[in-house]
Every structure is written in structure tokens, then in C-alpha cells.
Amino acid sequence: MVNLFRTQFVKSAPSKKDLLTDRKQVVFLGKSNVGKSTLLNAVCNNRNLAKTSSTPGRTQMLNYFDVEGRFYLVDAPGYGYYSDSKLDFTEMMEDYLSLGPKKIKRAYILLDSRRKITVEDKVCINMFYNKGISIRIVYTKTDKINQKERSAAEKDALAVLPDTKILWTSSEKKIGIDYLRTDIADALE
User: pLDDT for 77-95, tens place per residue?
Assistant: First the structure.
């Protein structure tokens, strides 16, 4: 099984020529401030692996993390908020998606469990869906909602992507982290 505890930063890719294409990979993406880097750190059991910030829009390149010299975890820029940035999220994702499902084994689309799915979320989901890439909806911050809110969020996600698997996580309370690790390992093996 993949040992995600043996993960280290490799490089940031600001453009298509910088993309790493030599290994299978999974990608984490979602709106700015949804908790991508924090969740990645929790999954890898290393709170200093991916840089976190309380300021939205800080991740502006694809950040590659090596897993055991065999796979990559990729932290994509958050979408929906860029101050003073030349980042074109759609163009960057189209370049990345050119790798196709043989290299990109799964996309983990992170959504804040306290928020409704937005048009931007749907656009992002469709970008990956239309390329035939396996998708998981990962709700973050689930320790902050009750069962009724969780049911509403699940209904919202299934209306957008009916056949997807939904994962419920909280980096703070370590909810769903082991399950997410197993799902990542299954995607990469």
C-alpha cells in the first residue's frame, strides 16, 4: 500500500512546460480557503508539507509532492479568488488535464461543507468529468455542521455529480482522514 507519510515537496509548476508527467498522480483542488493545503498536510501527517495561509489565493501554481518516489500528489491553485494575480486558473487546468486519465488517476474536488455548491465548483467538476478523470467530492470542515446540514450538502453534491463518491473530512478533528488515505492509495495502485 502507498505510504503517504513518506511524501515530500518536489516543485511548483507555473506553466505547461513545468508539468511533471513521469508518474501517476492525484490532484486536490477547490475554492481558495477551502482547506486544500491543510487537508493535504493531514493526509500526509506532516503539518509543514504544504504551505497554508489564511489569505485566500496564495497557491498560484501546481505544487507537486513526491510519494515514495512512485507517485505525485498535486496541490492545485484555489479558484475563485485572486488579488493582484496573473493566474488563469482555466488555462492552467486545461494544460494539466492534457495529461489525461492515464496519468491523473483521480481529482479530489474539495468543497466547504458549510457552503452551497457554486457555479465555479460546477465548472471545475465538469472540466475533470469531461476528460474522463475519476472524481471524488471531498467535503471539508464537517465537524462544523450537523446531520441535517450534512444531508443537504450530500443532496447538493449528488445533484451535480450523481455517481460520485462523497468523502467527509475535518483536518482539525481528523474526521475521514484515514478513509481518504485509503481512497488515494486505491487510485494510485
Answer: 888 655 445 667 788 889 9
Whether pTM > 0.85 for this model: the answer is yes
Mean pLDDT of 148-160: 95
Into which CATH architecture does domain 7-188 fall? 3-Layer(aba) Sandwich (3.40)
Residue range 122-149: mean pLDDT, rounded: 95
HSE-up (13 A, CA, CB side) for residue 71 = 25
